[in-house]
Write a structure and sequence with these properties.
homodimer, four-stranded mixed β-sheet, 8 strands, alpha+beta
Chain lengths: 168, 168
Protein backbone atom coordinates (compact mmCIF):
# COMPACT_ATOMS: atom_id res chain seq x y z
CA UNK A 1 0.00 0.00 0.00
CA UNK A 2 1.39 3.36 -1.02
CA UNK A 3 1.62 6.05 1.61
CA UNK A 4 -0.79 8.95 1.33
CA UNK A 5 0.60 11.73 -0.81
CA UNK A 6 2.25 14.37 1.36
CA UNK A 7 2.37 17.80 -0.16
CA UNK A 8 3.73 19.67 2.84
CA UNK A 9 6.00 19.03 5.78
CA UNK A 10 4.92 19.80 9.32
CA UNK A 11 5.32 23.53 9.93
CA UNK A 12 6.01 24.31 13.57
CA UNK A 13 5.54 28.10 13.61
CA UNK A 14 3.70 30.80 11.67
CA UNK A 15 7.07 32.33 10.67
CA UNK A 16 8.25 29.12 9.02
CA UNK A 17 4.91 28.80 7.26
CA UNK A 18 5.17 32.31 5.88
CA UNK A 19 8.79 31.82 4.87
CA UNK A 20 7.99 28.64 2.97
CA UNK A 21 5.09 30.24 1.18
CA UNK A 22 7.38 33.05 0.03
CA UNK A 23 10.06 30.58 -1.07
CA UNK A 24 7.67 28.78 -3.34
CA UNK A 25 6.82 31.96 -5.26
CA UNK A 26 9.94 34.15 -4.99
CA UNK A 27 13.66 33.71 -5.30
CA UNK A 28 14.43 35.24 -1.88
CA UNK A 29 15.79 33.29 1.06
CA UNK A 30 13.37 32.52 3.92
CA UNK A 31 13.46 34.74 7.02
CA UNK A 32 15.61 33.18 9.74
CA UNK A 33 16.04 34.22 13.36
CA UNK A 34 16.98 37.75 14.40
CA UNK A 35 20.74 37.09 14.43
CA UNK A 36 20.68 35.46 10.98
CA UNK A 37 18.66 38.33 9.51
CA UNK A 38 20.91 40.98 11.05
CA UNK A 39 24.34 39.40 10.76
CA UNK A 40 23.95 36.78 8.01
CA UNK A 41 24.49 37.02 4.28
CA UNK A 42 21.18 35.58 3.05
CA UNK A 43 18.82 38.05 1.38
CA UNK A 44 15.54 37.65 3.29
CA UNK A 45 13.61 40.86 2.69
CA UNK A 46 10.62 41.61 4.85
CA UNK A 47 7.56 42.82 2.96
CA UNK A 48 4.90 44.58 5.01
CA UNK A 49 1.23 43.69 5.38
CA UNK A 50 0.60 45.21 1.94
CA UNK A 51 3.45 43.15 0.43
CA UNK A 52 5.78 46.16 0.10
CA UNK A 53 9.30 47.14 1.12
CA UNK A 54 10.54 50.74 1.30
CA UNK A 55 13.19 51.74 -1.27
CA UNK A 56 15.29 54.90 -0.95
CA UNK A 57 16.89 55.84 -4.25
CA UNK A 58 20.11 57.88 -4.20
CA UNK A 59 22.46 59.28 -6.82
CA UNK A 60 25.38 56.86 -6.91
CA UNK A 61 28.00 59.63 -7.07
CA UNK A 62 26.67 62.29 -4.67
CA UNK A 63 24.56 60.06 -2.36
CA UNK A 64 21.73 62.62 -2.70
CA UNK A 65 18.34 61.06 -1.96
CA UNK A 66 16.35 61.32 -5.20
CA UNK A 67 13.10 59.64 -4.17
CA UNK A 68 11.40 57.22 -1.79
CA UNK A 69 9.19 54.52 -3.28
CA UNK A 70 8.02 50.97 -2.62
CA UNK A 71 8.64 47.57 -4.18
CA UNK A 72 6.70 44.34 -4.03
CA UNK A 73 8.48 41.02 -4.44
CA UNK A 74 8.13 41.10 -8.22
CA UNK A 75 9.48 44.65 -8.53
CA UNK A 76 12.46 43.88 -6.29
CA UNK A 77 13.31 40.67 -8.16
CA UNK A 78 13.02 42.43 -11.54
CA UNK A 79 15.22 45.29 -10.30
CA UNK A 80 17.93 42.81 -9.29
CA UNK A 81 17.65 40.93 -12.58
CA UNK A 82 17.54 43.89 -14.96
CA UNK A 83 19.58 46.44 -12.98
CA UNK A 84 16.97 49.08 -13.77
CA UNK A 85 14.73 50.37 -10.99
CA UNK A 86 11.22 48.90 -10.89
CA UNK A 87 8.80 49.96 -8.16
CA UNK A 88 5.22 49.15 -7.24
CA UNK A 89 2.92 52.12 -7.62
CA UNK A 90 0.61 52.31 -4.62
CA UNK A 91 -1.75 54.75 -6.36
CA UNK A 92 -1.99 52.73 -9.58
CA UNK A 93 -1.55 49.32 -7.84
CA UNK A 94 0.77 47.98 -10.50
CA UNK A 95 4.44 47.59 -11.40
CA UNK A 96 6.09 50.90 -12.19
CA UNK A 97 9.13 50.62 -14.43
CA UNK A 98 10.66 53.99 -13.63
CA UNK A 99 11.20 56.02 -16.79
CA UNK A 100 8.95 53.95 -19.04
CA UNK A 101 7.03 57.08 -19.99
CA UNK A 102 9.59 59.86 -19.44
CA UNK A 103 12.70 57.97 -20.52
CA UNK A 104 14.24 58.93 -17.16
CA UNK A 105 15.26 55.39 -16.24
CA UNK A 106 17.46 54.61 -13.24
CA UNK A 107 20.47 52.35 -13.84
CA UNK A 108 21.10 50.54 -10.59
CA UNK A 109 24.76 50.42 -9.58
CA UNK A 110 24.19 48.62 -6.30
CA UNK A 111 21.55 47.96 -3.65
CA UNK A 112 22.00 48.06 0.13
CA UNK A 113 19.67 46.53 2.70
CA UNK A 114 19.27 47.45 6.34
CA UNK A 115 19.76 45.49 9.55
CA UNK A 116 16.28 43.98 9.81
CA UNK A 117 15.99 43.72 6.01
CA UNK A 118 12.86 45.83 5.67
CA UNK A 119 14.33 48.81 3.79
CA UNK A 120 16.50 49.20 0.70
CA UNK A 121 18.88 51.86 -0.60
CA UNK A 122 19.38 51.91 -4.37
CA UNK A 123 22.43 53.70 -5.74
CA UNK A 124 21.55 54.74 -9.27
CA UNK A 125 22.63 56.67 -12.30
CA UNK A 126 19.58 58.83 -13.04
CA UNK A 127 19.23 59.08 -16.81
CA UNK A 128 18.04 62.57 -17.82
CA UNK A 129 19.45 63.97 -14.57
CA UNK A 130 16.07 64.28 -12.83
CA UNK A 131 13.69 61.83 -11.18
CA UNK A 132 10.73 63.88 -9.97
CA UNK A 133 7.51 64.14 -12.00
CA UNK A 134 7.20 67.77 -10.86
CA UNK A 135 10.40 68.58 -12.76
CA UNK A 136 13.06 68.71 -10.08
CA UNK A 137 16.29 66.70 -9.93
CA UNK A 138 15.15 65.08 -6.69
CA UNK A 139 11.69 64.77 -5.13
CA UNK A 140 13.10 66.48 -2.02
CA UNK A 141 13.15 70.06 -3.35
CA UNK A 142 11.68 71.72 -0.24
CA UNK A 143 12.85 71.92 3.35
CA UNK A 144 10.84 72.23 6.55
CA UNK A 145 10.91 75.73 8.00
CA UNK A 146 8.34 75.26 10.74
CA UNK A 147 5.42 72.95 11.53
CA UNK A 148 3.27 74.63 8.89
CA UNK A 149 5.81 76.11 6.49
CA UNK A 150 8.32 74.95 3.89
CA UNK A 151 10.98 76.76 1.92
CA UNK A 152 12.38 76.05 -1.51
CA UNK A 153 15.60 73.98 -1.41
CA UNK A 154 16.11 73.47 -5.16
CA UNK A 155 15.66 76.76 -7.00
CA UNK A 156 15.27 75.50 -10.54
CA UNK A 157 13.41 72.67 -12.20
CA UNK A 158 15.64 70.37 -14.23
CA UNK A 159 13.08 69.85 -16.98
CA UNK A 160 9.58 70.88 -18.03
CA UNK A 161 7.12 68.10 -17.10
CA UNK A 162 4.56 69.41 -19.62
CA UNK A 163 7.00 68.67 -22.42
CA UNK A 164 8.00 65.23 -21.11
CA UNK A 165 4.61 63.94 -19.97
CA UNK A 166 2.34 66.16 -22.05
CA UNK A 167 -0.14 68.61 -20.59
CA UNK A 168 -2.14 66.92 -17.85
CA UNK B 1 -35.76 80.88 18.74
CA UNK B 2 -32.07 80.09 18.87
CA UNK B 3 -30.64 78.13 16.00
CA UNK B 4 -29.64 74.59 16.69
CA UNK B 5 -26.08 74.36 17.94
CA UNK B 6 -23.71 73.78 15.07
CA UNK B 7 -20.42 72.21 16.06
CA UNK B 8 -19.09 71.68 12.56
CA UNK B 9 -19.27 73.35 9.19
CA UNK B 10 -20.45 71.45 6.17
CA UNK B 11 -17.60 69.32 4.92
CA UNK B 12 -17.91 68.58 1.23
CA UNK B 13 -15.30 65.84 0.85
CA UNK B 14 -13.59 63.16 2.95
CA UNK B 15 -10.24 64.90 2.37
CA UNK B 16 -11.42 68.16 3.90
CA UNK B 17 -12.87 66.26 6.86
CA UNK B 18 -9.56 64.52 7.45
CA UNK B 19 -7.59 67.72 7.05
CA UNK B 20 -9.74 69.53 9.60
CA UNK B 21 -9.44 66.72 12.10
CA UNK B 22 -5.65 66.86 11.79
CA UNK B 23 -5.65 70.65 12.19
CA UNK B 24 -7.45 70.46 15.48
CA UNK B 25 -4.88 68.14 17.00
CA UNK B 26 -1.61 68.96 15.22
CA UNK B 27 0.29 72.03 14.17
CA UNK B 28 0.54 70.97 10.51
CA UNK B 29 -1.26 72.72 7.67
CA UNK B 30 -4.27 70.93 6.15
CA UNK B 31 -3.81 68.99 2.91
CA UNK B 32 -4.77 71.09 -0.11
CA UNK B 33 -5.16 70.07 -3.72
CA UNK B 34 -2.41 68.28 -5.67
CA UNK B 35 -0.82 71.46 -7.02
CA UNK B 36 -0.74 73.11 -3.58
CA UNK B 37 0.81 70.02 -1.99
CA UNK B 38 3.43 69.68 -4.73
CA UNK B 39 4.28 73.29 -5.51
CA UNK B 40 3.20 75.18 -2.38
CA UNK B 41 5.10 76.14 0.75
CA UNK B 42 2.67 74.83 3.39
CA UNK B 43 3.82 71.79 5.36
CA UNK B 44 0.97 69.30 4.97
CA UNK B 45 2.49 65.89 5.66
CA UNK B 46 0.53 62.80 4.71
CA UNK B 47 0.45 60.11 7.38
CA UNK B 48 -0.50 56.62 6.21
CA UNK B 49 -3.34 54.43 7.46
CA UNK B 50 -1.26 53.59 10.54
CA UNK B 51 -0.61 57.30 11.18
CA UNK B 52 3.02 57.13 10.04
CA UNK B 53 5.32 58.92 7.59
CA UNK B 54 8.60 57.45 6.30
CA UNK B 55 11.78 59.22 7.42
CA UNK B 56 15.16 58.66 5.75
CA UNK B 57 18.01 59.83 7.95
CA UNK B 58 21.29 60.87 6.31
CA UNK B 59 24.63 62.15 7.52
CA UNK B 60 24.51 65.91 6.92
CA UNK B 61 28.06 66.05 5.57
CA UNK B 62 28.39 62.91 3.42
CA UNK B 63 24.67 62.39 2.55
CA UNK B 64 25.11 58.70 3.47
CA UNK B 65 21.79 57.08 4.39
CA UNK B 66 22.11 56.03 8.03
CA UNK B 67 18.67 54.53 8.65
CA UNK B 68 15.03 54.44 7.59
CA UNK B 69 12.39 54.83 10.28
CA UNK B 70 8.87 56.17 10.77
CA UNK B 71 7.29 59.12 12.56
CA UNK B 72 3.78 59.74 13.75
CA UNK B 73 2.48 63.30 14.05
CA UNK B 74 3.79 63.67 17.60
CA UNK B 75 7.29 62.41 16.71
CA UNK B 76 7.52 64.71 13.69
CA UNK B 77 6.33 67.76 15.64
CA UNK B 78 8.77 67.01 18.49
CA UNK B 79 11.64 66.55 15.99
CA UNK B 80 10.91 69.97 14.50
CA UNK B 81 10.63 71.58 17.92
CA UNK B 82 13.67 70.01 19.58
CA UNK B 83 15.92 69.51 16.53
CA UNK B 84 16.73 66.01 17.78
CA UNK B 85 15.37 62.99 15.88
CA UNK B 86 12.29 61.36 17.40
CA UNK B 87 10.68 58.39 15.67
CA UNK B 88 7.72 56.12 16.35
CA UNK B 89 8.79 52.55 17.04
CA UNK B 90 6.50 50.18 15.18
CA UNK B 91 7.67 47.18 17.21
CA UNK B 92 7.25 48.88 20.59
CA UNK B 93 4.34 51.10 19.48
CA UNK B 94 5.65 54.17 21.23
CA UNK B 95 7.75 57.30 20.71
CA UNK B 96 11.41 56.50 20.19
CA UNK B 97 13.74 59.33 21.11
CA UNK B 98 16.78 58.14 19.18
CA UNK B 99 19.79 57.79 21.47
CA UNK B 100 17.85 57.90 24.75
CA UNK B 101 19.48 54.61 25.78
CA UNK B 102 22.74 54.58 23.80
CA UNK B 103 23.48 58.30 23.91
CA UNK B 104 23.76 58.20 20.11
CA UNK B 105 21.37 61.09 19.53
CA UNK B 106 20.86 62.67 16.12
CA UNK B 107 21.10 66.46 15.90
CA UNK B 108 18.88 67.52 13.05
CA UNK B 109 20.44 70.11 10.75
CA UNK B 110 17.54 70.27 8.33
CA UNK B 111 14.56 68.28 7.06
CA UNK B 112 13.45 67.85 3.46
CA UNK B 113 10.03 66.67 2.29
CA UNK B 114 9.09 65.12 -1.03
CA UNK B 115 6.69 66.16 -3.78
CA UNK B 116 3.53 64.54 -2.39
CA UNK B 117 4.63 65.18 1.20
CA UNK B 118 4.59 61.57 2.35
CA UNK B 119 8.32 61.05 2.94
CA UNK B 120 11.01 62.96 4.83
CA UNK B 121 14.78 63.21 4.61
CA UNK B 122 16.54 64.23 7.84
CA UNK B 123 20.08 65.56 7.58
CA UNK B 124 21.71 64.88 10.92
CA UNK B 125 24.90 64.97 12.90
CA UNK B 126 25.08 61.45 14.33
CA UNK B 127 26.53 61.71 17.84
CA UNK B 128 28.82 58.76 18.58
CA UNK B 129 29.38 58.30 14.84
CA UNK B 130 27.07 55.28 14.52
CA UNK B 131 23.31 54.83 14.38
CA UNK B 132 22.70 51.09 14.05
CA UNK B 133 21.88 48.93 17.08
CA UNK B 134 23.95 46.11 15.49
CA UNK B 135 27.06 48.28 15.84
CA UNK B 136 27.61 49.68 12.37
CA UNK B 137 27.88 53.34 11.38
CA UNK B 138 24.80 52.96 9.16
CA UNK B 139 22.04 50.33 9.14
CA UNK B 140 22.90 49.69 5.47
CA UNK B 141 26.07 47.64 6.00
CA UNK B 142 25.29 44.90 3.45
CA UNK B 143 24.71 44.99 -0.30
CA UNK B 144 22.59 42.73 -2.48
CA UNK B 145 24.67 40.24 -4.45
CA UNK B 146 21.83 38.15 -5.86
CA UNK B 147 18.19 37.35 -5.04
CA UNK B 148 19.24 35.16 -2.12
CA UNK B 149 22.68 36.51 -1.19
CA UNK B 150 24.21 39.58 0.41
CA UNK B 151 27.78 40.73 0.84
CA UNK B 152 29.35 42.85 3.54
CA UNK B 153 29.58 46.54 2.59
CA UNK B 154 30.93 47.93 5.88
CA UNK B 155 33.81 45.81 7.13
CA UNK B 156 34.03 46.98 10.72
CA UNK B 157 31.53 47.75 13.45
CA UNK B 158 31.86 51.27 14.84
CA UNK B 159 31.11 50.22 18.41
CA UNK B 160 30.33 47.16 20.51
CA UNK B 161 26.56 46.99 21.12
CA UNK B 162 27.06 44.70 24.14
CA UNK B 163 28.96 47.51 25.88
CA UNK B 164 26.47 50.23 24.93
CA UNK B 165 23.18 48.37 25.45
CA UNK B 166 24.37 45.63 27.82
CA UNK B 167 24.25 41.92 27.01
CA UNK B 168 20.83 41.04 25.62
Amino acid sequence: MRPEKRTTQTVPTPLAKTARRIMSTTPFAPRGDKKTIEEGLALSPKFDDKGLITAVTCDHLTNEVLMVAYMNEEAFAETIATRQAVYFSRSRQKLWRKGEESGHVQKVKYILIDCDQDALVLKVEQIGGACCHVGYRSCFYRSVKDTDALEQAQAEKAYDPAKVYGKK
